[in-house]
## 1
Amino acid sequence: MSGRIAGGELNYDGIGATEHGPPPLDVECLVTSAYVGEGLAAYRRVVHGMLTWQLQKRAGLRVRADSDVVAPGARVVSGFGVGPFRINAPCEVVWVRRPLPGGGPQSAGFGYGTLPGHPVRGEEAFEISIDANGIVTIEITAFGVPSNWFYAAGGALTKRAQRLITSRYIESAHQLAGGES
């Protein structure tokens, strides 16, 4: 692994599609949007938290990353579950859009793609936006297919887990927007 926390190469079609779209044909794509707060200060807090892995950590994931700050090429392993039932999900950041100086409507975000050992082969992205009225929203986009027969067999359970973690990401964004520590 040459010092990296996860080995291997990105293992799916459509690398970068969460930024430039559309996702590959024949893969399920889920897009979830939610209100998280209001004002430039709330926007900046959520973006900072997103770009320092706090969105994942506050969602209850154990996060190990090559870098304390999200950057293209950085690798991260998120773990969820308990004890021997913990699943590790290695990814590599494939794109990052940083916030612009000043105010006004804008968005910032990043996308990461799966590496060998992840239960899915695909990509997930997080984008925080502020509109002209100061409304701050999060959009989470994910596409992929199960990485093997075991995860494919757990279809309904896998979808429930994805909905749960997405709701936790949204709650994390609410906490960050509100300045909760």
## 2
Amino acid sequence: MYGLWRPRVLGAWRVPTSGPVILAVNHAHNIDGPMLMGTAPRPVHFLIKKEAFVGPLDPFLHAIGQLEVDRTTADRAAISRALGVLERGGVLGIFPEGTRGDGDFASLRAGLAYFAVRSGSPIVPVAVLGSAERTGRLIPALPPLRSRVDVVFGDPFTAGDGSGRRTRTALDQATARIQERLTAHLENARRSTGR
């Protein structure tokens, strides 16, 4: 990442140095995940759509600890592997919107709340800014080479209400709390970086 672009990492010290943590990342571009993996202070394990595990990428993604997920169904094996990362004190990376979009945390799925409430792991919001700018691209699928991409880590927070409940209502309430925190972090990150 540092060879192709100019990442500026802000607030990495906010990521707990040990223990389970979930990095909740906005997702506007294909390089958001790799950019975070290349700049985070700890190794990150992402749930990645199974369609990406093809050809030479398959052994590479498995070797660096990425988790294959079938997005067409409730992939229980992928859920177990992700919870296992947290149980072992690792870092799970999640795009809470489920797929690429505007990267504004506008429509969160319940998966992030489920992992956070089920594991009790703190969430660190992460804003990747500058990856989706549309001008000056040599290759349309990538941001301009040597352009600046900001990776801004926020303060960790817990999603649950302290009751330990994992009902549908509790997860919906946790999702609403998470969305509020992630949106506020994104606004602060944009303000502080001028993006």
## 3
Amino acid sequence: MKKIVIIGSGGSGKSTLARKLGEKLKRKVYHLDVLFWKPNWVGVPKDEQRKVQNELVKEEEWIIDGNYGGTMEIRLNAADTIIFLDISKTICVFRAFKRMVQYRNKTRPDMGKGCKEKFDPEFFKWIWQFPTKSRPQILEQLKQLSNDKQIIILKSPKEVNKFLHRF
């Protein structure tokens, strides 16, 4: 477990798991939201996202959290371990709402500078539709990966905690 990718729906706990795992394994953690959102929610162009990720994955050890489906293959191909947080949409929506309230009008630690937390109906719609729209594609991508990769699918907060306690 030198190169770890953490993917999952918004609110699934990707950033929290990345941070905790980084502390336990003494690994550098990269939150893609920090890298790919400029102030006032201006997204970084996809070609720049690719360039940044191609550089990150050259490092010997890392943990990268975030989906960014259009560039996910860069991370999946470079990783030796992929953790998919396959958490229920109800939990994810609840967590995203809780986070929105907690950080309202502030930038949370795992987000780009100047991106103040706010209610975003499109984001909540994406979370709610994740199990039917994004999950099948992710599972298919994971099936296509070589057998030398460790793929870990965690389906509940309890499974995430058990996983973390192994270290």
